[in-house]
Amino acid sequence: MKKWTFLFAFVFVTTTVLGQAKKVELEEIWNGTFRTQRMDVLRSMKSGKQYTVLNTNRNLGSSSIDKYDYKTLEKIETIVSSGGDIPRFTSYEFSDDESRVILATEVEPIFRRSRLGVYYVYDINGKGITKIAEQKIQEPELSPDGTKVAYAFENNLYTLDLATKKVTQLTNDGNYGTIINGITDWVYEEEFGFVQAFEWNSNGTKIAFIRFDETDVPQFSMDVYGKNLYPFQHEFKYPKAGEANAKVSLHLYDVSTQQTASVDLGESYYIPRIKWMNDPNYLSVQTMNRHQDHLKLHEVNAKDNTVSLLVEEKDDAYVDIHDNLTFLSDDSFIWTSEKDGYNHLYLHGQDGKLMNQITKGPWEVTKYYGYDQNKDRIYYQSVENGSINRDIYSVSSGGKNKKRLSSKTGNNAAAFSADYSYFINTFSSATTPPEYTLHNASNGKLVKSIQNNEALLTKLKAYEIVPKEFSTIAVNGNDLNMWMLKPANFDASKKYPLLLFQYSGPGSQQVANRWMGGNDYWHQLLTSEGYIVACVDGRGTGLKGRDFKKITQKELGKFEVEDQIEAARKLSELAYIDEDRTGIWGWSYGGFMSTNCLLKGNDVFETAIAVAPVTSWRFYDTIYTERYMQTPQENASGYDDNSPFNYPELLKGNYLLVHGSGDDNVHVQNSMRMIEALIQANKKFEWAIYPDRNHGIYGGNTRLHLYNKMTNFIKTKL
Description:
11 helices, five-stranded antiparallel sheet, mainly beta, globular, 44 strands
């Protein structure tokens, strides 16, 4: 008996006769044909009665911050719009008292999250506009009262007094490649997920910041070809697994005395988060050891810089960093932890002592939204309604009287008003593009629809879009989530080639009941060419508990590969799957996986595509890699036994390897080593390098060219 079970299938309702339906074309995927309408940069005003949205007109090149009433959804006013002395802006941020707003213009990326830009402060009451600096700067932040702005420029911190226009330099030792003040280095940005490493306290009297000393971090360089006669090398500090990280330290700057003091945090290898409490004299700081299996939450008394321990978390594998720490009015706090086997909410007192576990059950809290102290209601998102879905809930701080506030099955996300009277729900599913609705926060009742993508759904009725069938498949003792796409004219008596798509990285999820992205449209194109496309989330992926996620510890690429090979083997047993035409593809971690699957599963897979793959974890960064693998010095076999360039002789099928030469994340070195190994093993394969393109491999016609190449490869090789 075949051990796989269908849960449900989503079906598009269409009036189009199948034979007349248009097929998705590659150009349409990347030219905006299927773009969804969204609410950009949504912010709730402090009153809880209004919210703001960034509205842009691409044709006119204009932008505005518009204020709307929650109750009526009617536009109340335009706070500021581009024109005259105000250039077009692409983002905005209010001061805590909402008297001023920072406008971002001329923004250019540095790495994945970091940006340089020309920033302005707009005085909402006085209607005046002030350019913060003539140069492009980073991460400007207004003081709570809106009178000053702190920012980073060339690795140093500065403040601007908006009344006097006086600029004060807080640090003087910043230098490219050695010292960074208040801005994270490459690896913190990429793996701890933040760039701004400084923060005002609640009354604007102090600024806490992290200092990075990169002196001992090895330098990485990559050639930039550009359009010049001679290429040049782009160099930056990148700590590969087992190598030296930046030395980090915590500092407090006193605005009135203009003095900076350092804080002794003891043996602290990483400082992944800082956050001021409501009391302006107290700062919370999270520190971790190098293995990232021991986290400490500290309290720093900013009056004398003494440090005390609030919470300590240990795990046999690793402790996840999150942004769910929230201080209540008395500085008791809410915190999330996996210590009972699933990610749940906990309430702690001011002194850090556990008061109670708020949520419980064999499911995960996926987002914490906030706490209404007046009503004693905590708001959060979770997968209680199945791990492929997201729903919004409220519960008391004691864990009682839980209410489900979302009603539709799929992916629900909420943006609450400041007073928790309303929330704007963003919903999507495999059949419903994003729709925005206003709800009463007390019971989840729909108040009014705000925006939907009916126009896109209407457009898609003319296309050959097939349903994404969700199911589970029993593999290696686990019921794994799966989706499958079958050709529109599917005939169970025929045999079809199978292409698996996956990512498979720790804590990730690809099998989710949410709206389509670019890869989904490409998969639709492939099904119209007669392919079955499927995706399986194997062991190591997220939202099924700690043990399921962390089983891959010290063995990245072992259990995940075993699950993909076995899933493909089981699917090949289906009467309508051609067992001699099985392929797999993936990007980044997914490329690492597809390469390993083709080699180690060469009796199952005939074809694989790997885009920007890791081919040895020795080449990847410290924070990500050592979190799951420890160091190469401690776990050499874990690194090498699953590095595909160590066994190129196993290649039997068709292999396409693609990388961008300007990838600052997964360096092209990974593919070059794989290419050399395959050449020396005298193996036939295809490869492509996209000049100067980063990990996303985009820009101009690059993405279209890439997907044309992959499409042709699939059509000729699978």
